[in-house]
Design goal:
The complex is a heterodimer of chains A (154) and B (123). Chain A is of the alpha+beta class and 154 residues long. Helix content of chain A is 38%, strand content 25%. The chains are: A alpha+beta (154), B alpha+beta (123).
Chain lengths: 154, 123
């Protein structure tokens, strides 16, 4: 490699390093809020949480209880109102089995979900009894691809 | 992370000046592409910062194309965009990418080659 070639290579590498470091700096400083990723030969844009902030606020503040359950009945997410319906707070509900809070909850829930799926999302309101007090509240199950959701209101 | 909606139609918004001027002889011209993801806060911040910097330092000698990758993600391929927002300077050559919300005017001016680089690896 001649001296001129070497200088060109170094200059090119420096430029590329600078750009890579600039990318890392921007990410660390929170200056970016979306990423492009390649999935199945196709570019997709993923926005970080701040983009769905307004939607999240709506769900967390609404007067209808809402929760997402995994296929084995664990609560993946619930809003404040949902936890209130179970006489507890959201941090005590996350990761717990839904059946812990509701009498025969899991069985009732899956039966209702299966019925809702058969009827293609025309979910009917059901009644569930709270484990501790036996008080009941209505809820409407919906199925989703990534999780199962139920919503209840007082 | 949440996947945002995608659509097939490419949307490339051009902002001032209305008519793309040709580089006058002896007068440098800046051709810039800002890649955004819809209306994310950092996308909006970057566009505001870029407009302000260009107006202050490159008046009448620049063109900004805003490219929304939510509307057309495939456009990310050409300029190899990874993080959003990213600003690409295609003219003057060589092509250069600047990642982030462009909140450091000094850094942007160095990146645009308006101001010579004085230090490297700052911050």
């Amino acid at each position: 490699m001649s001296g001129a070639d070497a200088r060109r290579t170094v200059s090119d590498l420096m430029k590329r390093l600078e750009e890579a470091e600039d990318t890392i700096r921007a990410i660390r400083n929170g200056e970016v809020d979306a990423f492009v990723m390649r999935a199945a030969e196709e570019e997709r844009v993923f926005a970080v949480a701040s983009a769905d902030g307004p939607y999240r606020l709506l769900v967390e503040r609404m007067q209808q209880g809402a929760a997402t359950l995994s296929s084995d009945g664990a609560v993946l997410y619930c809003n404040q109102r949902f936890a209130e319906l179970l006489s507890t707070s959201p941090e005590h509900v996350f990761g717990e089995s839904f059946g812990r809070f509701v009498q025969a909850g899991t069985r009732l829930l899956w039966n209702a979900l299966a019925a809702a799926e058969r009827k293609k999302e025309t979910a009917r309101e059901r009644s569930l009894s709270r484990g501790s007090t036996g008080a009941s509240f209505p809820f409407t199950p919906r199925s989703a691809r990534s999780g199962r959701t139920s919503a209840g209101s007082p | 992370m949440k996947k945002t909606a995608t659509a097939a139609t490419p949307v490339v918004k051009k902002t001032r000046p209305k008519t793309a001027p040709k580089s006058a002889p002896g007068r440098p011209f800046w051709d810039l592409r800002l890649y955004v993801a819809g209306q994310t806060p950092k996308s909006i911040t970057a566009l505001n910062n870029l407009r302000r910097i260009c107006e202050e330092h490159l008046e009448g000698r620049y063109r900004i194309q805003v490219i929304d990758l939510v509307k057309n993600p495939a456009l990310a391929r050409g300029d190899q965009i990874v993080a959003i927002p990213t600003l690409v300077r295609s003219v003057p050559a060589p092509l250069r990418r600047m990642i982030g919300d462009l909140s450091s005017t000094e850094r942007v001016l160095v990146g645009l080659d308006v101001r010579p680089s004085t230090s490297r690896g700052d911050e």
